[in-house]
Amino acid sequence: MINQMKGDTRQIDEDYKDAEGEKRLTKEVEIHKGLVGVYVDESLISYIDGEIGKLFYRGYPIDVLGDKSSFEEVSYLLIYGRLPTKSELANHKDLLVKERNIPDNVLSILKSFPRNTTRIELLRTAISALSLYDADDYIYTEEANIRKGLRIIAKMPTIIAFSHCIQQNQPLVEPSEELSHAGNYYYMMTGQEPSEKFERAFDKILICHADHSINASTFSCRVTVSTLSDIYSGITSAIGTLRGPLHGGANEAVAKYMFNEIKKKENVIPWAKKKLANKEKVMGFGHRVYKTWDPRAVIMRDLSLKFFTEYLDGVDFDRIPKNSGLELDHDHSEVDYIFEMTEILKDYMIKEKKIFPNVDLYSAGILHILGIPIAAFTPLFAASRCAGWVAHAIEQFKDNKMLRPRLKYVGKLNKRYKDISERD
Ligand code: COA
After folding, report:
1. Mutate to test the pocket of ligand 1, among 252, 280, 281, 289 (most ligand atoms within 8 A of CB)
2. Strand 54-57's sheet: what is its strand order?
3. Would you give the distance in Å from CA 47 to the centre of its chain?
4. Residue 332 catalytic?
5. Residue whose CA is closest, atom 23 of ligand 1?
6. Is 181 a catalytic residue?
7. Closest Cα to atom 16, ligand 1: which residue?
8. CA 291 → CA 75, 132, 212, distances in Å?
9. Which atom of ligand 1 lies nearest, measured to the CA of 359?
10. 248 CA to centre of ligand 1 in angstroms
11. In 357-384, which positions are buried (b, 16+ CB within 10 angstroms) versus exposed (e)?
12. Closest ligand 1 atom to Cα of 284
């Protein structure tokens, strides 16, 4: 007997004859729900060891890159497959600086979007529109794809910062040609040039999010380009996928529950108990591949600790832009330090559920203290991950096989078509 699909409450018309069809549908196939554990191809881009919590970009450990590299160098590494020489890095940085501006027409459409639109929707739509102004739009060579990819990487911070300012009715901060990719991104988001420590921290966050093998958004990107569609379409698909709270939206969700629901250390455990009792997910925990600590969470925790114990010493809190007008309904004095709250939550989740923190648990707190508005957290993930998306699109094009899995049909066949006059 063919089953009705789990969760599907639509009525199935019983008037059918499917003896012949049923025979074919009983053929056993193995279903990999959520594609868990399925390898779709080989890759040279990044490697995740989920058992021991390790991540490598092109063979280099993420903690080493986080300490020693920059987002510019990491994007070069991911796209070209090797570390740049001094002059290659200088040229690459130069190109990213020169491509920071966006076409006036894209700025005009950013201004035309409805207010209170999520920044990630604005980014998705703007990237899609940007393709129409790219001189290489209909050129599909690898060189042209790299040029387009680098333009997307260079322009994303500008689109994100501009769209945020427009939504907040604030003046635009034009990109600076003097600052690094991270420094300029920070500057456009906050209107202030970062201190060396803030710039380094921001750069580290970008490095940690730059690639993660075939995660959901990267898979979307690869599926799209596997039809020999273009790189802008691949990245537009990826942004749409990243938006969900199970993926890139988790960092915003963490900030919201920390600041709007938990607020104080003593509330952490009762809050978490209630969540688990209601069988709700606690964002910022768990991962499809890691069965232990996410190595990016280790780096971010370390950074959070530094902010908590050292970096904030001497920092003028008034210089940190307030998130006024956004989702936050507190001021800084009303909530405990996010680092202390995450420590309690982390111990509780590991003890009770053996579920470990992922990168989003800690990035949320650091981004907040850096003064990045919560509404721009998920776009920031995209601005970093687009380095990986570009690298994956190019790898997919190199040895393409269209990505097209199967679904096991579990419905009925050969139903009798009732004329509309026979239907109630
Ligand atoms: N909070 C509470 N329980 C969680 C959890 C979380 N964050 N993550 C996983 N679990 C539990 C599930 O409830 C499930 O329990 P059950 O077997 O008793 O039903 C079990 O762990 C497996 O979870 P599942 O969601 O099926 O595994 P997955 O491989 O699909 O999950 C994620 C991966 C990332 C989707 C999942 O961990 C999650 O939703 N995390 C929160 C969102 C998040 O932080 N995303 C950012 C990832 S970098």
Report:
1. 281
2. 46-49, 54-57, 60-61
3. 18
4. no
5. 286
6. no
7. 279
8. 27, 43, 15
9. 48
10. 14
11. bbbbbbbbbbbbbbbbbbbbbbbbbbbb
12. 44
The residue with tokens 């094009």 is: 397
Determine if ligand 1 sits within 6 Å of the CB of residue 350. no
The radius of gyration of the chain from alpha carbons, rounded to an integer in Å, stands at: 24
Answer whether 190's CB lies under 8 Å from 372's CB. Answer: yes
Instruction: Return the pLDDT at 333.
Output: 61
Q: Which of 181, 209, 212, 287 is catalytic?
A: 287
- Answer yes or no: is the C-beta of 378 below 6 A from any ligand 1 atom: no
**pLDDT tens by residue, 118-137:** 999 999 999 999 999 999 99
**CB-CB neighbours of 312 under 10 Å:** 15
Residues of the chain with pLDDT under 70: 1-26, 312-334
Token pair 């969470």: residue: 297
Rounded Cα distance between 104 and 121, Å, is: 19
Distance CA 361, CA 345 (A): 10
Q: Residue 61 forms beta bridges with which residues? A: 56
pLDDT at 328: 46
- How far is it, in rounded angstroms, from Cα 143 to Cα 278? 52
Tens digits of residue pLDDT in 319-365: 555 543 344 445 556 677 888 999 999 999 999 999 999 999 999 98
Ligand 1 touching residue 283 (CB < 6 A): yes
How many angstroms separate the CA atoms of 10 and 167, rounded? 40
**Residues belonging to the chain:** 424
Instruction: Measure 246 CA to ligand 1 centroid, in angstroms.
Output: 8
**Separation of alpha carbons 33 and 37, rounded Å:** 10
Location of structure tokens 């952490």 = 268
d(CA 274, CA 264): 16
Whether 163 contacts 126, CB under 8 Å: yes
Query: What is the rounded CA–CA span in Å between residue 331 and residue 344?
Result: 22
287 is catalytic: yes
Mutual orientation of helices 181-190 and 86-98 as an angle, nearest 10°? 30
**C-alpha 60 to ligand 1 mean position (Å):** 28
CA distance 361 to 97: 31
